[in-house]
Specification:
The chain is built from 18 helices and 16 strands. The protein has 428 residues and is of the alpha/beta class. The radius of gyration is 27 Å and the shape is globular. It binds adenosine-5'-triphosphate and magnesium ion (MG).
Length: 428
Amino acid sequence: MTVKLKVESVFKLFNDTRKEGMALLRDGATKDEIFRSTGVTVGINDVSFEVNEGEIFVIMGLSGSGKSTLVRTLNGLIRPSSGKIFIAGEDVASCDMKRLRAIRRREITMVFQHFALFPHKTVVENVAYGLKVKGVGPTERRKAAIEALAKVGLDAYADSFPGQLSGGMQQRVGLARGLATDPAILLMDEPFGALDPLIRREMQDELIALQKELKKTIVFITHDLNEALLLGNRIAIMKDGAFVQVGTAQDIVSNPADDYVRAFVADIDRSRVFTASDIAQDADHIPLKESVLGALVVMDKAGVDVAHVVDQDGVLAGMVTREALTAVKPNTPVVEVMEPDAPSVTSEAYINEMYATAQNGVLMAVTDSDGKLVGSVEPTAIFGHLTPDTETATEAEEDDGKEDAGPPSDETETEPANIVDAQKEKSL
Ligand SMILES: Nc1ncnc2c1ncn2[C@@H]1O[C@H](COP(=O)(O)OP(=O)(O)OP(=O)(O)O)[C@@H](O)[C@H]1O
Ligand SMILES: [Mg+2]
């Protein structure tokens, strides 16, 4: 993995002309205490992180926690009080203006919450603006701008004016403008903050789809944890200028570092955080060319009454039940008894995308993008991941399961059933 951005122990204190704020901070004083006693504001407090190529790194925190200050130090709009910020081998925290301008031109683009489009320029002129600044000629920059607009589905609006577009469309133009210069790093400070919830969801999905194709390195700022969890490959939670936790959505939701993070996590929609792969168990599978007798041996050994059948490439072929197997002669080929339409989900499916399949009430197969069986999920198990308390219980179970042959089957069956009841009661 290539590191595209490396931040080392960055501090930013506002109005700290006499360095007294820094001294107090080193002695362990809080942001609040420092402000009260000296009038110095701690903007960033000892932040370090790296962002890998193609990663969306989300910085999330309440208003005033320092997100914008941090993102502005990354493109040199604010110089930190101390620390280093490496982009393309250059320390943007200390390099001269000429080098900084060169880095901004080549490596980094910022997309803002307020689209900051020029009202009297057409959409395509707005998108081409960054290229014009870069010195790209008119024909070439119009071509690049139209391409960028096509990526966000707005090439047909190239010659419209921003005022003729909806807010969501204007933000897409802002995004196209960011993409047009083809920067290595995109900085996005609350880019969807001004959009209404439905459009916001659309833009989030669109960014995810775009990112699959473009694989940009993105630093994305938000104060909405659901947005952070949806978009971030990793998320940093910021408080009073410091990072209190950095991790994947699953890390943060499963193990919040402190009460501040726990308070955020309490309200989030877990069904949009955990995927089939997070809750899948190892699947006991039966080869397609097996006989009924052989299949029953596999099932006895695993202590299960339902199992998936796979072909010679490991691709899901169907499922069998003990009931069906015992109703026929032992030498019958499994393929004759098998139910070919086994309910299945892909390993990246979020829990909220699994409800419909779970309603079959049948063990779900979990497959990779090639259709290969990678695990299975009991329909009831998905509810176990929707409340914080049961989360830890399920995790402990899974850990046990890795060492032994597997958790006792009666326990896994009764536990989630109770959880389902509790869940139902809650929603009534
Ligand atoms: N130019 C400045 N002078 C003095 N203090 C500043 C300046 N800019 C920011 N601050 C302070 O730095 C802290 C971090 O502000 P910042 O704007 O980075 O927060 P934020 O997390 O982006 O908040 P929001 O979610 O409201 O955008 C705040 O306490 C703010 O008052
Ligand atoms: Mg801000």
